[in-house]
What does this fold into?
Amino acid sequence: MVLGLATGRTMIPLYQRLIGIIRDQKLSLKRCRTFNLDEYVGLNPTDPSSYHYYMQEHFFRHVDLAPENSHFLDGCALDLDAEAKRYEELITSVGGIDLQLLGIGHSGHIGFNEPLSSLGSRTRPKFLSPQTRHQNRVDFGETTDDVPEQSLTMGVATILDAQEIILLATGSAKAEILAKAMEGPITSMITASALQTHANCKVIIDEDCAHSLTMRNYIEFVLERDPNWASYFLK
Ligand code: GLP
It folds into this structure.
């Protein structure tokens, strides 16, 4: 299986859960490949604020994934465009991503596809919005200025090429942007809204994150009647 992986605080409990399941059921990831969504420009893998470091810490060092099978964008590449192209070609060469995990930023981004990103974008360097740098400052230091200005990220169209997508969002702070992404118009101002066009995308949220959904009653009505979801649907 080729997995597309995401970072951020939302994903930490998911990786913990996955590590537990892999241990309990004696599963192996030896034949898995992973591609991370994005990376900060200028950070090397040993920098504790890099997404590479995050993945080692929260997932990879706990499982038997072969190091040569986990792929990252190189934030220290001298030619960022060439690095983005290499990544796109590598994803294509392994047959594409089977399952892509996603979080959502306060700006409505997936990966680092900030507002105004083309919905047809491929992997590329992307400057971060002030809102994202503000949101992610806790991973760097005191102020927004400590956060790198630029990232490398899979594009919106790269993400939409995945066979299956799961977006995870938790907490009331994400409720409003999540509702806009799910129920609002498809717009480059909220790149997560492009997921509405994907044929196999599931959005998993907690109670606090559900508050702003206007279609909530209908969603619950449907999920309770869907045998694939009923057992997971917690009241
Ligand atoms: C970063 C990542 C996104 C992630 C977002 C949400 O900006 N580039 O891929 O979805 O953070 O992070 P958190 O889960 O910490 O709210």
